[in-house]
Design goal:
about 140 residues; mainly alpha; two-stranded antiparallel ribbon
């Protein structure tokens, strides 16, 4: 993968785009009144002059792969900064899941220890008569 592109290719593409845009903007000038067309001409001249005076900003890196051009906006810090919240979210969800699993396991362990250390054998809890006995006892209280 080649990350360096000659600036002449970028300049040619920008020039072609600028010429197409200027032609598109100038297409309807014939129908405009003279004063409006003069104001547009002056505004264009001012915009071109301001563009020539503006300092050159750092352009985004360009990646060329098998003849296709892809512009990657922003720096590495910007991309890392946009991924960090996603990583934090995933880490938080995993932490919540692990904590819930631990809570469930400790609750089940408490129930198991209560069953095994209780006065009744575990088979008594599965007896339908014992369930009726507990319901009747709770109703009388």
């Amino acid at each position: 993968m080649n990350t360096k592109v000659p600036t002449s290719i970028n300049t040619v593409a920008e020039d072609q785009f600028g010429k197409r845009l200027a032609a598109r903007l100038s297409a309807g000038n014939g129908e405009l009144p003279h004063d409006i067309s003069e104001r547009l001409r002056v505004a264009r001249a001012q915009a071109v002059a301001a563009r020539k005076q503006a300092p050159q900003l750092r352009t985004a890196p360009v990646v060329v792969q098998s003849g296709h051009t892809l512009t990657m906006g922003g720096s590495w810090w910007t991309r890392i900064g946009s991924v960090v919240p996603l990583i934090a979210l995933v880490a938080g969800l995993i932490t919540i899941s692990v904590m819930q699993d631990d809570d469930r396991a400790s609750e089940l362990a408490e129930v198991d220890s209560a069953l095994l250390t209780g006065d009744l054998p575990p088979a008594a809890y599965t007896d339908p008569g014992f369930a009726q006995f507990l319901k009747a006892e709770n109703a009388s209280d």
